[in-house]
Write a structure and sequence with these properties.
It is a multi-pass membrane protein. By secondary structure, the chain is an all-alpha fold. The protein is built from 20 helices and no strands. The termini are far apart.
């Protein structure tokens, strides 16, 4: 359920509207291409995590396969990414609640949400699993119901509707209304909507049967991506014109439900989006605390965060939550400077993480085949060809980011942060060797 819920986030419910506005109906192709790339990355990560489960996940794999500097760099970059994500999600969730209860300050709801999820993660790891189970169940139920309603409307079976045919797919400029450039912008928007799946392998290390859990989650990634992401985009652009202002203004899901005359669609989707944001907060605090603890346990961070109690790295949980809350304060104090720098710094971080995963898998697979072939319970498809194809795909996305003014700044900031962390990790590695 964590794997299933992790793939459905606020980026899909709201952020996909910008991709539809940029690419038009071809957003379906964009999500399919980026979904294929994510599927390859998850298969690689699943292979390594099933062979050697670790709460540090890809950071541990990168350290073993490439070197301590790589584990340090990708681990702390991912930690910052998750903590900034906690801040962004808390701000979004507080905004929704403040809209329901006008007159209440948003910072108050940020503090309440931070306290709730920090507290749940401090208590026991089972609390994280319990929260995520119900969050995932609600999100899956909502999107499944949405897809059923839309398919009925497309078939003309839903009362008060008629089958739209291909009018919205081929009208208003055709399937590629803004040409290849629009498809590229849509592709970039879709790539980052898939972030969050990596937490599954972190959680797997604390499950009863991590090998079976990782294998099951990775093997079902294909139909999850096809149904929830590509399927959603397909029904949305079939039922409503891609250039309808409501797609961006209200979000594509609300726009489609309003278009179909479903009463109370906006309020219902507000609840679903709030759940998605709270789910992401919960998962990000959990993932950040485990990544920080794993790094510290390997001598890659302040030893004060190493202490555990009741099987929970409580100091790492508090430190991760505190950094997230600090980022929220920065968004109030210096929204256009310091907070903007933080957002840009993690803008392309997920691509850096995926690249490290691919390189680590290339090296780890050779070592496992030579020394411990029995550990290869989950195998990467068509190794090493699809691994190299994924690396090329990641490189292409980075090049496309450099070509777009809106994403070029993010690429530069993320590149600078990655180089700085890699340099710090390399210096630590050399100092450790001399010691």
């Amino acid at each position: 359920m964590i794997a299933l819920g992790g793939v459905i986030g606020a980026g899909l419910f709201v952020g996909s509207g910008a991709g539809i506005a940029a690419a038009g109906p071809s957003i379906v192709v964009a999500y399919a291409i980026s979904g294929l790339l994510v599927m390859l990355v998850m298969r690689m990560l699943g292979e390594m995590s099933a062979a050697r489960p670790a709460s540090g996940s890809f950071s541990v794999h990168a350290e073993r396969a490439i070197g301590p500097w790589a584990g340090f760099a990708v681990g702390w970059l991912f930690w910052v990414l998750l903590c900034v994500g906690v801040a962004v999600e808390a701000i979004g969730a507080a905004g929704i609640i403040s809209g329901w209860l006008p007159g209440t300050p948003s910072w108050l709801w940020v503090a309440v949400l931070m306290a709730v999820f920090c507290g749940s993660n401090l208590a026991a790891v089972s609390n994280f699993g319990e929260f995520e189970f119900w969050f995932a169940a609600l999100k899956i139920a909502a999107i499944s119901l949405f897809l059923i309603v839309c398919v009925l409307a497309i078939c003309g079976v839903l009362p008060g509707t008629h089958a739209p045919g291909a009018a919205d797919l081929t009208g208003d400029g055709g399937f590629l209304p803004k040409g290849a450039n629009g498809l590229i912008v849509g592709l970039l928007a879709s790539v980052f909507a898939y972030g969050g799946l990596e937490t599954v392998t972190i959680a797997a290390a604390e499950s009863r049967d991590p090998v079976a859990g990782v294998g099951r989650a990775v093997r079902t990634a294909m139909w999850r991506i096809a149904v929830f992401y590509v399927g959603s985009m397909a029904v949305i652009v079939t039922l409503i014109p891609w250039n309808d202002p409501a797609v961006v203004g209200h979000g594509p899901y609300v726009a489609v439900l309003d278009h179909l005359g479903i009463p109370g669609a906006g309020r219902v989707m507000d609840v679903v989006i709030l759940v998605a944001l709270m789910s992401a907060m919960n998962a990000n605090i959990y993932g950040a605390s485990r990544m920080a603890y794993s790094l510290v346990d390997r001598g890659q961070g302040p030893r004060a965060l190493r202490r555990t109690s009741g099987g929970v790295p409580r100091r790492a949980v508090v430190a991760s939550s505190a950094f997230g809350f600090l980022a929220v304060l920065l968004s109030y104090w210096w929204p256009t400077t310091v907070f903007s720098w933080l957002l840009n710094m993690v803008g392309a971080a997920v691509l850096v993480v995926w690249a490290f995963i691919a390189v680590a898998q290339l090296r780890t697979r050779r070592r496992l085949e030579r020394e411990e072939p029995h550990r290869l319970v989950v195998r990467m498809w068509a190794y090493p060809y699809l691994t190299w194809a994924a690396l090329v795909g990641i490189g292409v996305v980075l090049v496309l980011m450099a070509r777009q003014p809106d994403t070029r700044t993010q690429l530069y900031f993320t590149g600078g942060a990655t180089l700085a962390l890699a340099a710090a990790g390399y210096l630590r590695q050399r100092a450790g060797r001399r010691g």
